[in-house]
Amino acid sequence: MDNLTGIESLDSLLRPFNKGEIIEIYGNWNIVLSISHVTIASLSRYGMVGVIYIQDYGNLDPYFIRKMVKILRGNFDNIYISRAFRRYDIPDLIKGVEGLDSLVIIDPYLFSPTSPLNYKLLTPITGAIKENSSKGIITIIFNRETSLGRFLPEGGKFHHHILHSIVRVIPYRNGVEAVLIKHYAKSVPKASYISYKELGDERLWVGQHLLQEWL
Hints:
Radius of gyration: 16 Å
Strand order of the largest sheet: 3-2-4-5-1-6-7-8
Oligomer: single chain
Largest sheet: 8 strands, mixed
Order of helices and strands: HEHEHEHEHEHEEE
Shape: globular
């Protein structure tokens, strides 16, 4: 597997890729969400892709995924999506994946507590992600910045500890700056530039209840 995200400037930061690796991309949420769509399409070239999506409403666009599958020559039939509506459902969904080549988790800590004293409630999610990596499945997490501090991903210290690689993405000029924050085999930080064209360029959000089409 030479590429994961399908975005060369981002993949160059993340290489080498190994089975069971846990990678996180976080930062500006619109950019993170765009990269998640391209990544799902890219991973469909290599086999079965599980997508666990944690959102109250909207934002996952199957039309855009299909467009990127065609561009990247993936296989739309390799993509399987599950949606969690409560924090308590997320660990079981993660632990229940079988027969996948890769797993994408979008916004796993959406239901984070408002106080850092209650972050222990997130331990079952983090533990499930760590346990799942023992199956040899590459896991890519698309996360947001924490509401309890600046420039850190959501999930707390235990979550940050289990990750093999972390990339933060932020708007930069007419594109995106991707900064390698953590990597098991490279010195950090390292930065790379992503053009908007690499993110699919003219992405169209049609404003429908798109996830209903997956359920």
